[in-house]
Amino acid sequence: MPATTKTTAAAGPRTGRQTAADLSFLARAMKAPALLDAAERLAERALKETWTHTEFLVACLQREVSARESHGGEARIRTARFPAIKTIEELDITHLRGITRQQLAHLGTLDFITENAVFLGPPGTGKTHLAIGLAVRACQAGHRVAFATAAEWVDRLAAAHHAGHLQAELTKLSRYPLIVVDEVGYIPFESEAANLFFQLVSNRYERASVIVTSNKPFGRWGEVFGDETVAAAMIDRLVHHAEVHSLKGDSYRMRGRQLGRVPTATHDTD
């Protein structure tokens, strides 16, 4: 039958050029450039290693998924608004005191996500680097992250409060699996600011994660927030499900600096 003859001809052998053209068209239609880039190399490997068709398809799709996750991680890192990109691998573990290699490796697994992580210690001991490094890894693992200093978070919440949509802002932030609050304690809070910060922490309690860095031990948070009761309630919510590490040592930034005494001024005499 003519119809059968036509179908048989259409299903006949295809040239390499036709196949390449079809693959290019289909990859563009699917918006899958990584699949297109990898397909030819994977096809050669599949022939050598006698993969099944299913194994070849899985390998191609894995390349595309990996590429998309990588690009997604880059986008999440950009939108997190980190002051600088730092990684866990870049940490100088020989200078880091108050946290062991095993503890750092455990944090790196991101098991604390859905809980909290708190890093306390003097300036320059690696708190912010740790916080950013873990948050960058969270971005790469597919989590949305938002970073700001404590003062910046309070300014953001105060603006929402004065505009009459504080709860909407807190709800929006609760959709981030992880937020980073850097530099708690550097600037004392007024009572309104302390209350806003408490609402941020309370709204995320047992719902989403917070990484907090502070140069003050918990015993001095009453000074920061101007109210011992508010500070105690905030600490209670932060540490209930948390990894807490107190870092020690001298400032990493001042390592190797020659900081001698300032010369005493001298006066010429006649």
Structural class: alpha/beta
Helical run tally: 11
Fraction in beta strands? 5-15%
| Rg over alpha carbons | 28 Å
**What helical percentage do the residues reach?**
40-55%
Major β-sheet, in short? 5 strands, parallel
Query: What is the H/E order?
Result: HHHHHEHEHHEHEHHE
Mean pLDDT: 84
**Main β-sheet, spatial strand arrangement:** 2-3-4-1-5
Overall strand count:
5
Q: Which word captures the global form?
A: elongated
Alpha carbon gap, first and last residue: 123 Å
Flag low-confidence runs. Answer: 1-12, 259-270
Written account of the structure:
The chain has helices spanning 2-10, 16-30, 33-49, 53-80, 101-108, 127-140, 150-162, 166-174, 191-204, 221-225, 228-239; strands at 116-120, 145-149, 178-184, 209-214, 242-246. Strands 2-3-4-1-5 form a five-stranded parallel sheet. Helix 3 runs antiparallel to helix 4, helix 7 packs across helix 8 and helix 7 (150-162) packs across helix 9. The longest helix is centred in the N-terminal third of the chain and has 28 residues, at 53-80. The chain is α/β, with parallel strands linked by helices and 270 residues long. It is 53% helix and 10% strand.
